[in-house]
Design a protein that fits this description.
Helix 1 (59-70) crosses helix 2 (88-106), helix 2 (88-106) runs parallel beside helix 3 (127-139) and helix 5 (205-217) packs across helix 6 (254-276). The protein has helices at 59-70, 88-106, 127-139, 146-152, 205-217, 254-276, 295-306, 309-316, 323-330, 363-370, 397-404, and strands at residues 19-24, 36-41, 46-51, 75-82, 113-120, 161-169, 172-181, 194-199, 234-239, 284-292, 343-346, 349-353, 356-357, 374-380, 386-393. The two termini are 21 Å apart. The protein is an alpha+beta fold. It contains 11 helices and 15 strands. A 6-stranded mixed beta sheet has the order 13-12-11-14-10-15. A 5-stranded mixed beta sheet has the order 3-9-8-7-6, sandwiched between helices. The protein has a 4-stranded mixed beta sheet with strand order 1-2-4-5, with helices on both faces. The longest helix is centred in the middle third of the chain and has 23 residues, at 254-276. The radius of gyration is 22 Å and the shape is globular.
Length: 408
């Protein structure tokens, strides 16, 4: 079960004027499961997207990048159960064929369709199954289908991830609704996650791209489950402009700051939800590194700890074996690390002070923290004023089981 995360309530997910969604059961991996999502975007909307930095990116990622250079997106087609990654020319043909199928049914250009896939790598996409159910998906497009879409994009997720937030822009109420999937193969650049966020706010295309990148850096690029960057990661931000607010054309305006706060709130919730639902996770861990020369080296230390199998298994066991955290800091690769300035704490329990065991630390104090389902590891470097934060989870028996049996 996800760590302190409840499933979304369908009624709490607010429709976004200018966006309609549909789901269908194509039987891509398992018969009878809703595994296809179609999202329709109103003409005149602006769309921003970021994709995985994995060099072996999937065919749909390659095609999305191409299509975004050629036309304004009108439809997003998402399938779960098959990643269409590592599939060569046939995989690219399947991605193009799925876009053409949507285009033919909706009377738009194929370049106006962005395809997304998630699931098993290295297996050919059964595009004919998608083509078969697309007519029913087009007929089922509705503004209030966010809950169904959140469930249909899941793979090893145990819980759907979705939320709506509102903010005020120039006296107008603006709504943001987003969904995400991901539980394993999670590491920034971006983190196998997919996320789709829509708003009815009017935002210029240039500013929308900046909003997405800034928000990513504060949310999805701060999470890791297992250190593996997926071949298929994507995050899309849609602005339909239907709310009636004056278009946000500058990052410095009060409206821009208000919208950014709302977007960060939503993105952070979805990003944390992915970690809380990490494969086999029993604990949610924040790693906060203070006192770095810059934010980059703070993240370097945080990720070294977050990716350590020894740290993660100790967390699962609720074992206050803090030597594993100490060792991770020491091997993080920072030049000229002054050990006499290093402090380490679990929540408010000091473990290491000035590079040495804290005189007041006891195993009992450490155990009380480690028994919790949510823990913050604090690291102080004493090298500057920068700080940064990463969210991760523990490694349990179930993580191994889930991934050992993933294709069976």
């Amino acid at each position: 079960m996800a760590v302190n995360l409840l499933p979304p309530v369908a009624a709490d997910l607010k429709p976004i004027e200018g966006v309609r969604l549909a789901t269908a059961s194509a039987g891509i991996k398992k018969p009878g499961r809703q595994d296809l999502v179609l999202i329709e975007i109103a003409e005149g909307s602006h769309t921003a997207a970021v994709y995985t930095r994995n060099a072996f990116c999937a065919a749909p990622v390659v095609l999305c990048r191409e299509h975004q250079q050629q036309a304004s997106p009108r439809y997003l087609l998402i399938n779960s159960g098959n990643a269409n990654a590592g599939t060569g020319d046939l995989g690219m043909q399947a991605a193009k064929r799925s876009c053409q199928a949507v285009a033919s049914l909706t009377h738009v250009s194929a370049q106006s369709v962005l395809p997304f896939s998630t699931g098993v790598i290295g297996q050919q996409l059964p595009v004919e199954k998608i083509e078969t159910v697309l007519p029913s998906a087009v007929a089922d497009l509705q503004a209030d289908n966010w809950f169904a879409a959140a469930n249909a994009i899941m793979t090893t997720d145990t819980i759907a991830k979705a939320q709506s937030v509102e903010c005020q822009l120039g006296g107008q109420t603006v709504t943001l609704t987003g969904i995400a999937k991901g539980a394993g193969m999670i590491r920034p650049d971006m983190a196998t996650m997919l996320s789709y966020i829509a708003t009815d706010a009017a935002i210029s295309e240039t500013v929308l791209n900046s909003f997405l990148k800034q928000s990513m850096d504060q949310s999805f690029n701060r999470i890791t489950v297992d250190g593996d960057t997926s071949t298929n990661d994507a995050c899309v931000l849609i602005a339909t402009g239907k709310a009636g607010n004056a278009e946000i054309g500058s990052l410095e305006s009060d409206d821009a700051k208000s919208f950014m706060m709302a977007l960060n709130k939503l993105s952070r919730f979805l990003a944390e939800a992915i970690v809380r639902d990490g494969e086999g996770a029993t604990k949610f861990i924040a790693i906060n590194v203070h006192g770095g020369a810059d934010a980059g080296e703070c993240r370097q230390v945080a990720y070294t700890i977050a990716h350590s199998p020894l740290v993660k298994t100790a967390l699962f066991a609720s074992d206050p074996n803090w030597g594993r955290i100490l060792a991770a800091v020491g091997r993080s690769g920072l030049d000229n690390l002054d050990l006499s300035k290093i402090d380490i704490a679990l929540d408010d329990v000091a473990i290491v002070t000035g590079g040495q065991p804290d005189v007041d630390y006891t195993e009992t104090k450490g155990q009380q923290v480690m028994d919790q389902s949510e823990i913050t590891i604090h690291i102080t470097l004493g090298r500057g004023q920068a700080e940064d934060l990463v969210w991760t989870c523990d490694f349990s028996y179930d993580y191994v089981k889930i991934n050992a049996e993933y294709r069976t």
